[in-house]
Design goal:
28% strand; 3 helices
């Protein structure tokens, strides 16, 4: 396995661990998901939903496990979609520096990288 592939596998594992730890949106606006720091951001249409609906969406995202080259071409487990309540929602994990200001230069280094999980209604894309 070359270094680039190995880093992608590490990033995918970190993204999975972060996403899987996000089981309560009220506690995870700023969070530490299994030792991985980050926050969750809702776009306006998601933010307007009742707490129970947002919680159901977040739980379904946390339980996402079906990744393959077709839906995860970069192998980083950083994007997906879920359907609930006859609506489709997209989620995306972006990797930032410790101050959430710039993209992380060492994306697989947990001491230097913070994650932002954005959840949006498909019509907001």
């Amino acid at each position: 396995m070359d270094e680039k592939t190995e880093n992608k596998a590490v990033i995918a594992s970190q993204n999975d661990r972060f996403r899987e730890a996000l089981t309560d949106f009220k506690k995870h606006m700023i969070c530490m998901g299994q030792g991985i720091f980050g926050k969750t951001v809702f776009t306006p249409m998601v933010a307007e939903l009742y707490d129970q609906k947002r919680q159901a969406i977040l739980t379904k995202i946390a339980n996402t496990s079906a990744f393959d080259p077709e839906n995860d071409p970069y192998g980083e487990h950083d994007f997906g979609s879920v359907t609930l309540f006859d609506q489709t929602y997209f989620w995306k994990i972006d990797l930032y520096d410790q101050n959430f200001q710039y993209g992380s230069e060492q994306r697989d280094d947990l001491t230097k990288t913070r994650r932002v999980l954005t959840i949006m209604h498909s019509s907001e894309y």
